[in-house]
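Hi R.,

As promised on Friday, here is the backbone we talked about, encoded as structure tokens. Could you run it through your design pipeline when you get a chance and send me back a sequence?
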């Protein structure tokens, strides 16, 4: 599919600097730009690439001013990264969509499917399942009994949704995600662990995206709740009865223990570990590989294990490599002080 710079600028309501008739039919990173591709520049670290890129069109922020000649046609927009996202959405919306129920899939006679639904081969849809409109369920997905799925949901291959879970509108579940597996609950009696039945469910509100092989455990009672707009990366573990506030994002390999509550608009870096039964305040930012063992106030910026103020963490990280030398210096000073004490009357 081919677009001219003028068509793209009209769609984005941007301003063209260069040839409005140049055509592109693909996307590229600015450092890998080729003829007939469109790239973008939003991170200042990549500015030098704009003078050498072979891309025919580059999206730039309105405040960008070139320091020398640029061969590409520029389209100025308020936010180049957001403009790229809009273009990708447009291209994706124009791509052919699968519909219908493929052979070798199973749909219970008691299930209710909305209009324009796709069910791939070897997918399983259990009893009393409710599926909304424009839902895509790819091959080998499992939808357990009494699950409710909203409109415009995409469930990729191999996703498992256990019984009675609820998926809101516009959600995306990537391959291998497991929604509603039993929480890790056991009672130790006379040295033997006895399973505590997990009779709750998982609730994903609207506009939630779950990464590949991420697991969200069902509640012991009630619901494990992922609120509107949450984005979870791949390989994340969310334990039973957790609650994640709206618009919070987490990078890969985060692990959250049971009954933890995370506020709205938080950002968690990769491999963060959070203990159970604690609260993370809204608008908190937690650096990669941090360990959280106590409540975190709203707006916190922490890092380390156990985590503490990110400013103090960076100050400490400068000192840590110097500790061996400091240790030797302290030992030497102690010896000098002892010698001086011996010389005192």
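Update: got your reply. Pasting your designed sequence below so it's all in one thread:
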């Amino acid at each position: 599919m081919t677009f001219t710079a003028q068509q793209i600028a009209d769609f984005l309501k941007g301003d063209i600097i260069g040839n409005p008739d140049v055509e592109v039919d693909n996307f590229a990173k600015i450092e890998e730009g080729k003829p007939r591709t469109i790239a973008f520049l939003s991170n200042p670290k990549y500015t030098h690439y704009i003078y050498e890129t072979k891309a025919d069109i580059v999206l730039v922020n309105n405040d960008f001013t070139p320091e020398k000649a640029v061969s590409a046609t520029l389209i100025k927009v308020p936010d180049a990264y957001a403009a790229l996202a809009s273009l990708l959405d447009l291209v994706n919306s124009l791509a052919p969509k699968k519909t219908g129920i493929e052979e070798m899939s199973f749909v219970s006679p008691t299930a209710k499917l909305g209009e324009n639904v796709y069910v791939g081969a070897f997918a399983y849809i259990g009893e009393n399942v409710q599926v909304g409109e424009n839902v895509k369920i790819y091959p080998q997905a499992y939808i357990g009994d009494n699950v409710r799925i909203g409109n415009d949901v995409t469930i990729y291959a191999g996703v498992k949704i256990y019984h009675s879970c609820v998926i809101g509108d516009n959600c995306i579940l990537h391959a291998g995600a497991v929604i509603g597996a039993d929480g890790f609950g056991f009672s130790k009696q006379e040295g033997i662990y006895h399973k505590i039945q997990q009779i709750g469910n998982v609730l994903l509100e609207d506009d939630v995206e779950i990464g590949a092989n991420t697991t969200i455990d069902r509640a012991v009672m009630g619901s494990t709740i992922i609120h509107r707009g949450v984005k979870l990366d791949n390989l994340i573990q969310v334990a039973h009865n957790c609650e994640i506030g709206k618009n919070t994002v987490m990078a890969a390999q985060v692990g959250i223990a049971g009954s933890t509550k995370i506020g709205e608009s938080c950002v968690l870096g990769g491999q963060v570990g959070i203990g159970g039964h604690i609260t993370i305040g809204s608008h908190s930012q937690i650096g990669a590989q941090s360990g959280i063992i106590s409540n975190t106030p709203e707006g916190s910026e922490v890092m380390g294990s156990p985590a503490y103020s990110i400013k103090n963490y960076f100050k400490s990280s400068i000192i840590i490599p110097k500790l061996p030398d400091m240790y030797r210096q302290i030992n030497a000073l102690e010896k000098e002080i002892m010698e001086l004490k011996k010389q005192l009357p």
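One thing I noticed while checking it: The two ends are 94 Å apart (CA to CA).

Thanks again,
M.
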